[in-house]
Automatic annotation (TrEMBL):
PANTHER family: PHOSPHO-N-ACETYLMURAMOYL-PENTAPEPTIDE-TRANSFERASE, UNDECAPRENYL-PHOSPHATE ALPHA-N-ACETYLGLUCOSAMINYL 1-PHOSPHATE TRANSFERASE. It holds the Pfam family Glycos_transf_4. The lineage of its organism: Bacteria, Bacillati, Actinomycetota, Actinomycetes, Micrococcales. InterPro entries: Glycosyl_transferase_4, PNAcMuramoyl-5peptid_Trfase_CS. It comes from the Bacteria. Keywords: Cell membrane, Membrane, Transferase, Transmembrane, Transmembrane helix. The chain crosses the membrane at residues 6-27, 48-66, 78-96, 108-127, 133-154, 166-185, 197-217, 229-247, 267-289, 320-340, 352-370. This is MraY family glycosyltransferase. It is a multi-pass membrane protein. It is found in: Cell membrane. PROSITE patterns: MRAY_2.
Amino acid sequence: MKQYVFTILFTAAITFGLSWGVWRLSLKYKLYPGIRERDVHKTPTPRLGGVAMFLGVTAAFLVSSQNPFFAIVWVDPIAVWAILGATLLIVLVGVADDLWDLDWMIKLGAQFLAAGIIAWFGQLQIYSLPIGGVAVVSSWVSFTLTVFSIVVVMNAVNFIDGLDGLVAGVCLIANVIFFAYSYLLVRDHGASTYFNLASFIAAVLIGACIGFLPLNWSPAKLFMGDSGALMLGLLMATSAIAITGILDPAIVGDNDEFGRSQLLGAFIPILLPVVIVLLPLLDFGLAVIRRMRAGKSPFSPDRKHLHHRMLDMGHSDRDAVLIFYAWTTIVSMSFLLMYIGTQYQWPGDYMLGVAFGVVGVAACLVVTLLPSRRAAAAPPSLQPTREAVA
């Protein structure tokens, strides 16, 4: 665990220093776009924070190659280089889009190419599903499923990037939960070492988000842009896929190995990696449906994302971000507690996680809906309007 803590602190320190440098250089050379109609901020702000995050992540990977504790991560160096190569590609495309606003088809093509690099050259694919030993029968099915999964998560994370500190904070919470899950899962599976690629990527992303947040917190001095959001989505999806290669699906589906509840023991290992990005996936799905029903491209920008709706309900920027944090924590922690309960045979098995989720969701609903009542009761001159927050 000490090595993981060192990785987090190292990545955070490097990312923070580089973020400050990128911010200063961006201001000096005016490397920032103008205000768009859908933007919430009112002053031009640099969007190249993803570059600093990428360099911090790369530095952590390179340092790990010299650390004997992470030798298992580098057993197959081609996989690591494929991950870094795909990440570099998506960051470069993201930077180009942040500066010159690329066509959505170019960005989508680059996303599929980056996902393909990880799946093909890195050989990180969804080979099996931990449900009673169900395996993906075709290599092409495995490859296709992996690529589409990575692309969906990338876009889901990118779609919620609309408020100061939103993506960095949500991804920080999600990766903390996933790190705890992957660490426990490998340990409970009887592995000879706790060090693995999935947990390492999660630790690196925790550090990158911690290092970036001080400059991204409201009022933000620096945005991560598409380069940072797409990178986070890419690496989060990769870490979730990497964990499937550690587990024997027949054992994961075994009632004795994964607790007294066979249903939860079989499904939680595949549900939790999805649950940690549930809000981004929900926002992404709603946006695609909404835009296609209107006859538009699913990637055409608009101002109807979940965080925009919270602002229209009367939340401040910071309150909306904190509510997103709360939802992410409640939902992901509930599933983590259910996994721990079934694995360690706590009294009631998964019921602690269910109770935590029910109470937490109720509290989040109250906090989420409360501002709309305050806004309705306010004088017309004080009620929030779309123009007031655009």
